[in-house]
Every structure is written in structure tokens, then in C-alpha cells.
Amino acid sequence: MCTSNTTECMSPPSYHFLTQKTKSKQAKFRMRNQVRIHRLNRVNKFIEEKIKQEMELRNLKLYMENMSILEENERLRNKATILHQENLALLSLLENKRFNL
Question: CA-CA distance, 70 to 75, in Å (whole number)?
Fold first, then answer.
């Protein structure tokens, strides 16, 4: 048996059994936590990928809408330039008629 005066030798055998049992429970608990963390990391990665794809799609839609607005703006600017030139020509004709009268 035990010859030294340690607490291990002096404690009853049931104490050793309980400490071994709690150590195994702690190991199982750590293992469960590691598995849980691994699963959460996988789920988070999947969610991040899904969010990334949604953001890319939203970005593409906004880009297309922006390009459409820019094209419409260019068309309206050209139309405004033509109308302005027409307006200047009509004013010139009106002034010529006024001076001729």
C-alpha cells in the first residue's frame, strides 16, 4: 500500500474514484464544447458566404441601376442641349423680325 504520508495515500478509495469520474466528465464536457464550437464555426462560415453572395448580388443590381440612371442623364443632357440651341435660334429669328419691322 502507501508508505508515504501523502493525501493520496490517506484518502479513501472512493475519493480516487470520484476524482477520476469528475476528470472524465470534464474531458467529455471539453470535447462537447469543442464539437459545439466546430459546428458553430461551420455554420458561421456558411452564413458569411451566404451574406457575401447576397451583398454581391445587391451590389450588382445597384451598379446596373446606377448605369441606367447615368445613361438616362446623358440622354436628357443631350436633349437639353438641342432644346437650348433651338431656343437660341428662335430668339435670334425673333430679334431679326423685330428689327425688320
Answer: 9
Contacts of 2 (CB under 8 A, 6+ apart): 8, 9, 10
pLDDT tens across 25-38, in order?
777 778 888 888 89
CA distance 12 to 82: 104
The domain limits of the chain are 24-100
Cα 16 to Cα 18: distance, rounded to the nearest angstrom: 5
Q: Provide CB contacts within 8 A for 3, sequence distance 6+.
A: 9
Instruction: Encode 18-56: b = buried (16+ Cβ within 10 Å), e = exposed.
Output: eeeeeeeeeeeeeeeeeeeeeeeeeeeeeeeeeeeeeee
Total-model pTM: 0.53
